[in-house]
Predict the structure.
Amino acid sequence: MIRFRMVKINVDQFAILADKDKAPTEGLSYTVNLGFSVAPDVKGIACGFSVEFAHNNKIILKISISCEFSVHPEDWNTHIKDNTLTLSTEDLGFFANQTVGTARGIMFCKTEETDFRNFILPPVDLTKIIDDDLVINLTQHN
């Protein structure tokens, strides 16, 4: 397991695009996106996560966040070979799980006084989203 700590949470976007006191309960769908970026100079990785809820194909709530993580130097270095950083899908899953959990908490806080408080961010099967290792050539980042 890779050792890390969360160093920053960014709420890039949060919006309720409907009457906050009349959240629909049927005809809902959602889409999620997940992405990663690396800051080799500080042994950091960021995970971005967004979800959009739609009602009858019209977006009614969206949240986009990113969490920044600092990786323990020893663990960072064990993931480097031939000046290439490789983070496995399992490693990425750790960062993604933390980020999705953080998004749940932010969504809870931001909807607390609205009818949207009953919306649930459904379980996200990260194994279907993270299907490849992250491989970064570090010479291109210097």
